[in-house]
Design goal:
Blueprint (H helix, E strand, L loop, with lengths): L7 H30 L3 H28 L1
Helix pairs in contact: 1-2
């Protein structure tokens, strides 16, 4: 940390934002790939569809809450 003087907000973005998103997405991909490899096509498709749909619904709910504050 002494060698790389970086703005604390950039550090937060890089560690929490980027790495958090990357690990979440890679876990989703790994789990879906494992289901496909095991021949669980229907469950893999449900995982994809429900993850995207629930994520989008959560986004919209978050936007509504943010606008109402």
């Amino acid at each position: 940390t002494e060698r790389f003087m970086i703005n604390p907000q950039w550090r937060l973005f890089l560690t929490v934002g980027f790495l958090g998103a990357y690990t979440t997405f890679s876990t989703f991909e790994y789990e879906t790939g494992s289901l496909l490899k095991d021949g669980e096509l229907a469950i893999a498709m449900m995982n994809i569809i429900f993850s995207v749909v629930v994520g989008f619904v959560a986004l919209k709910i978050g936007e509504l809450i943010a606008k109402s504050i």
